[in-house]
Amino acid sequence: MIIGFGSGVRRAGRAVLDLLLPPLCLTCDAVVDTPGAFCPACFRQTGFITPPCCETCGAPFSRAEAAVGAARRGRMCADCQDDPPPWGRGRAALRYDAQARRLVLPLKYGDRTELAPALAAMMMRAGAELVREAEVIVPVPLHRTRLISRRFNQAALIAGQIGRLGGRAVVLDGLVRVRRTAALAELPAQARAVEMDRAIAVRPGRLERLRGRRVLLVDDVLTSGSTARACAFALMTAEVAWIDLLVAARVSDPRRR
Ligand SMILES: [Zn+2]
Ligand SMILES: [Zn+2]
What we know:
- With 257 residues, the protein is α/β, with parallel strands linked by helices.
- It contains twelve helices and seven strands.
- It folds into two domains: 1-39, no CATH class; 46-256, Rossmann fold (3-Layer(aba) Sandwich), CATH 3.40.50.2020.
- The protein has helices at residues 7-12, 14-17, 40-44, 63-72, 78-82, 98-108, 115-126, 128-133, 154-166, 189-197, 207-210, 226-237, and strands at 90-95, 136-139, 169-170, 175-177, 200-202, 214-222, 242-250.
- It has a five-stranded parallel beta sheet, sandwiched between helices.
- β2 (136-139), α9 and β3 form a beta-alpha-beta unit.
- It is globular, with a radius of gyration of 19 Å.
- The structure holds zinc ion (2 copies).
């Protein structure tokens, strides 16, 4: 009976069937040895970001860029040099390409929560030092307009898994969206940045858990960086000691899109 199930059914009932059947690859229907693994073909097409990369935004450097950067600019990319982000260090596990979308989007839309521990494990490798030195992990809060259509905050799911894997405290509701930002697209870039910077705040009841602590901010995807900036500014008002950023995937060159 079980052998007759199509892969769609298998995915849908995966949590139960994984107890009975061999595990499937994270991004295709190939059978793999352990849950949360890629098959060899999918592993090869996964865009893991490895050093050298920008110290503050995690953008991968080519060997040539790294060599020039080391000599001329330190370990930050040109964009971060021009407009330094308001956090200390930034790391991303993956380039946000078609393969990364196969990991991030099914988690985001809620039908494959088992992707959260898999992404967290990849982020643990990319940001090992950041996790180790963090005292508190805080997820980027879910966009208020999206709460209606989703059951959970994917960044919070990932943050919880990183906390579990790294043995770190997690404050899942440390940050909160304080105003709607849906109309931002209509504003000029400068006004949009100012609006966004005020769109997120530390939840008053969590101030004492964050004050004076080294905080690791966690999100699924880093695109323009404006949401992470807003989170960092909010954390600064709580007088945290330090802020690092760890994301599952980053758009390769967001500011030039
Ligand atoms: Zn595969
Ligand atoms: Zn950078």
